[in-house]
Amino acid sequence: MFFVLSNPVLNAHGDLHKRILNVTEEIQKNPDSANLYFKRGKLYYQHNNYTNSLKDFKYSKELGLESVAQDFYIAKSNYHLENYFDCKKNIKKILREDSNNSSALKLLADIYFKKGKYKKSAKLYDEVIRNSEVTYPEQYLYASKAWYATNNKRGRERSQSILIEGIEKLGDIVVLYDKLVSNYVDIKDFNSAVKFQNKVIQISNRKERAYLELANIQIQQGKLKEAELSIIKAEENYKKLPYRIRNTIFMREFYSELKTKKIELKN
After folding, report:
1. What is the residue-wise DSSP string for 135-177?
2. What does the pLDDT read at residue 2?
3. Do both 91 and 106 map to the same domain?
4. Is there a contact between 265 and 224 (Cβ–Cβ < 8 Å)?
5. End-to-end alpha-carbon separation of the chain, Å?
């Protein structure tokens, strides 16, 4: 089971404020309605007002509303307020009834990561992946980050293998390859970094930045001639872009970085 909580960006905060006021008026007419407090609590949650959301969820509970969704909202509100003890208490209640609840497992993993308990966090992120009917790239990224943070050989190996598992299951996802490359660069396994960066180039529609990243890796390898070729390819791909794209601030900054790197290599 995986809960999807409403995303705050889906509604403008002004609209949320109006909706909160409307539900507040309904509560004044029906002060014993647990459902109305739950409804307003969800709106407060979307509004990032976790103190008020927690108050409303607790009151709806006192009025007799019992639901897993409400328990999860209470846990999430506590998490955002950094009340990790209370958050864990609600998560464990959910897990007692549904030990494979992916959302609850993920939130517990988040808490352990925040507290620096990386191995516990990593194992829970692994469970999230195993128990999810549908997996997403970010789940593999969370697990990889936690395993890598354990800062030991086994953790780093697991960090990489879980990214590869994600690619095998989901297909060629650039963010997963990017994380692989970043990890390999960090441990100075430049040959592996180059291998996967070439894969990024292969699958990318826009290749100019991927070639520049390849050049950066090759420079760290000391393979300056190869880096020069990668810079040339980066510039070629940049010049193929429409003028309106090349003229954006972001791309002008990129080209400035490219030219600087080109000069550094020549010197």
Report:
1. --HHHHHHHHHHHHHT-SHHHHHHHHHHHHHHHHHH---HHHH
2. 52
3. no
4. yes
5. 58
Instruction: Give the C-alpha separation, 162 to 41, whole Å.
Output: 37
Q: Which amino acid, one-letter code, is at 161?
A: S
Alpha helices, H only, the chain: 13-29, 34-46, 50-62, 68-80, 84-97, 102-114, 118-131, 137-149, 153-170, 174-186, 190-203, 208-221, 224-239, 243-246, 249-266
Sign of CA dihedral 186, 125, 110, 172: positive
With 90 as the cut, is the pLDDT of residue 53 above it?
yes
Taking the C-alpha atoms of residue 240 and residue 26, their distance in angstroms, rounded to an integer, is 59
pLDDT digits (tens, 9 = 90+) for 172-231: 999 999 999 999 999 999 999 999 999 999 999 999 999 999 999 999 999 999 999 999
Are 84 and 13 in the same domain? Answer: yes
Give pLDDT tens digits for 55-104.
999 999 999 999 999 999 999 999 999 999 999 999 999 999 999 999 99
Task: Please report the pLDDT score of residue 99 as a whole number.
Answer: 92
**Please, what is the average pLDDT of the chain?**
93
Q: Does 136 share its domain with 229?
A: no
The mean per-residue pLDDT over the stretch 240-257 comes to 96
Number of folded domains in the chain?
3
Same domain, 200 and 250: yes
The Cα 48–Cα 14 span in angstroms is: 13
- Among 144, 171, 198, the domain-final residue is 171
